[in-house]
Every structure is written in C-alpha cells, then in structure tokens.
Amino acid sequence: MSPSARPPDQPATSPPSSAALDPAEATHPASELSAGIGSGARESASAKGIARLAVPALVVLAAEPLYVLVDTAVVGHLGRVPLAAVAVGGTVMSLAAWFGNLMAYGTTGRAARRFGAGDRSAAVAEGVQASWLALAMGAVLIVLAQIGAGPLAAALAGDATTADAAAGWLRVASLGAPGLLLAAAGNGWMRGVQDTRRPLLFVLGANVLSAILCPVLVYPAGWGLTGSAVANVVAQTVSGGCFLAALIRETRALRPRPQVILQQLALGRDLLIRGAAFQACFLSATAVASRFGVAAVGAHQIALQLWFFSALALDAVAIAAQSLVGAALGGGDADGARDVARRVTIAGGVAGIGFAVLAAAGAGVVPGWFTPDRSVHEQAAIVWPWFVGLMPFAGVVYALDGVLIGAGDIRYLRNLTLASALLGFLPAIWLAYWLDLGLGGVWAGLGLFVLIRFVTIVWRWRSGGWAVIGATR
C-alpha cells in the first residue's frame, strides 16, 4: 500500500524511497535515506535547535506588521482621508496575507516530511507546486481587485471620498499579490528543509527597502497615497522574486503537477475553514463587546491586539514544531516526533508563562499607552485577569497546533476548532450578551474557546494517533 493510500492512522512500516514519492522529480537515490534522520531530528529539538528555527521565523513574522506601522505613520501625515483609505484598503489586502499564511503552513509540513525522508528534491518540488498555486491565486486576486475595488471600498468606508481613495490604493496595491503569495510558498518549503537564513534575508531586506521607499515616494516624489501602494508592491515583488530565484537555483523540474496542487488545495481548504472559525469568534467577540459601550469595546480592542501580538510571537515556536515534527515523521521516527512535540510544548508553555508575567506586571501601565480615558482603564481591569490567566494555556495550544500541522493532522485541527467555536465560544459569547455579563462575560467566552482547544489538543498529543510515519500523509 502506498503512503498516500493507507488509512490515516495506520503507520507505514518504513519510509518510502524518494522514487516512490515523486518519480518525475526525485533525483536522490534511495540509498540516501539515512537511518540517522530521526536521531538528527531529536538533536535539533534541543532548546538551541528550536531557537535556531523559531527566532528567524519570529523576525519574518514580525517584519510585515512592523512595515505596516511605518506605512501608517507616513500616510497619517497626509491627513485623515488617506489614513482612512489605507485602513480600508489594508483590511481587504489582509485577506491575501491570510491566504499566504495558510499556504506557507501547509507547504511547511509537506516539505518537512519529504526532507525528513532524505529527499530534499521532493521537498523542493512541494515548493514548486506551491509557487504555481501562488502565481495563479495572485493573478486571480489582481483581477478581482481591479473589478471589485470600488464596491468593496464603498461597503467598508464611511464616506465617498475615503472610498474613492481606498479603491485607488487597492487597485495598485493588489499588483503585489503574486509576490506576496510567492514569498509565502517560499517560506513554506524553506522552513520545511530547515533553511532559516534565506527567508530572513529576503523578507527583512524587502521590507527595509519598502520602508525607505515609502516616505520618498509619498513626499519628495509627490505621489501621495499612490506612493504608499507602490512601495507595498515593490516590497512584495522583490521578496517573491527572491524566493522564486532561489527555487529556480534549487531545481530544474519546474513544470506544474496538477495532482500535487490539488493535494495542497485540499490541505489549504481545511486550514481555511479552521481560520474562518477563528475569524468568526473574534468578530463576534468585538460585536458583543461593542454592545456594552464605547469604553468596553475600547478595552476589548486593546487586550485583543495585545493577544494577537503575543500569538505572533508564540507562533514562531509552532513554526519550529512544524518543521521538526514533519522531518522526524518523514524520516520514519515516530519516537523522535513525540520527543520533538514534548520539547516544543514545554517551550510554548514557558513562552506563554513569560508573556503572562509581563502582562501582569504591565496591568496598571499598558492600557495607558493606548488611551488616557479612565473608563477604558476600568474596563481593561476587568479583561486583564483573563488575558493573563489564559496566556500559558495559549502557549501550549499554539505549540501543539504546530505539532499537528507538521504531522499533517489538519482534519483533526479543523474539526476541533469548529467544535470549540460552535459548541463552546459562540453560545457562551451570546449568552454573555443576553445576560448582560459585560466584558468579563465576553472574555469568559474566549477563555472557554481556549480551554476546550487546550484539553482536546493535549488529549490528541498524548494519544499519539497523530504520529503517522512516512514522507506523505
């Protein structure tokens, strides 16, 4: 039975040869499959090995949000309308970034398994197919933006002037979508082969270039808001071009393979559904918080953005888990994968505790960084114990998310997230509204969402059913 045909919880008896993975593109002989792959993965799962993957991933994850802050500051000096236009246009473009993240996560796990099986060529081949998918999706997004920028901006903007400005910005900024998605695909396969240096250079270099270019185009060049969009396009195109050039240097087998692309789309579908459940939860939380007054929604927004920032940092541990677990399972070492899972789970929990300590220490100070309004501070005091108390659990959940994504156990994650949202969070959040429980009720609902995921994902980890060996799943 081939690896792709076996039942999802039935372990393969040995890792398949590289020829069995992809005969058209495999170049390494089967003799290159090393029995030491698994032990190498265990050595990589030391604190130093996890940090080697997690720290560069954190810089890459943070580069885009930091550039957005620079861009916002530059545009903000043009006036309220341009700033509002970038906010509206950026909200739409964030969907492309979301697709990119899904693509990167899915590609990492698949490439890591191939790499762990001793076949770097097959791992790179995953990047080739992901890059074709990125180019196709990027082209579709450009067309949709040119057609739908006006109606979308009008639906989101508060007035016609802002809508017109946002539509113009979006039409230009959408031209960077292929580069943005190519960079995501490149990040995915490079993480899979545990190459952390080049993604760091490509992404950071492109964003530094754009941060320099943005104020030059906006002010001295006199392009105004359009200059901001052009700077975005330049950064995304340069970054995507660097990843594409690296891919071409790695392999000459560049033709599209529809079967592999369809497998990647199926994986992306499950990640997309899971992501949509998250979005529904956080949008519902904001909607309910807004019904408790301006001060409540302001405090909720502060805590939620800090939560997202913490999640960004904790996600770096999850990315390390994807790469290390995928490599161990691809190398036929289920025990090594379990050891990796244990270590990254401890790392995630420790990181979560660290953030909780920092948040607790800043309880009386941090809300004042965002607003001087004392009523917002009072509402933040209600949220803060929830924020601090949930962080250690979140650290473990994010780490184990990475473990299961690296193991290809995406269907379980999808079902878990949907169940946590539909059976836990959404009923609790609307019950808080009906019973007028205030912001504490909103964050109790978020807490229930996190704790259901914590219990069920820890159970899955302990069961070992996710540790299916082989180069594919």
TrEMBL record:
Predominant location: membrane
Sequence intervals crossing the membrane: 50-70, 82-105, 130-149, 169-189, 201-223, 229-248, 271-294, 306-332, 344-370, 382-404, 416-435, 441-459
PANTHER family: PROTEIN DETOXIFICATION 44, CHLOROPLASTIC (PTHR42893:SF46), PROTEIN DETOXIFICATION 44, CHLOROPLASTIC-RELATED (PTHR42893)
Superkingdom of origin: Bacteria
Composition bias, Pro residues: 1-14
CC terms in the record's Gene Ontology section: plasma membrane
Alphabetically ordered keywords of this record: Membrane, Transmembrane, Transmembrane helix
Protein name: MATE family efflux transporter
Organism: Paractinoplanes toevensis
Annotated region (Disordered), positions in chain: 1-38
Family: Belongs to the multi antimicrobial extrusion (MATE) (TC 2.A.66.1) family.
Any GO molecular function: antiporter activity
Topology within the bilayer: Multi-pass membrane protein
Cell compartment(s), UniProt: Membrane
NCBIfam families (alphabetical): matE
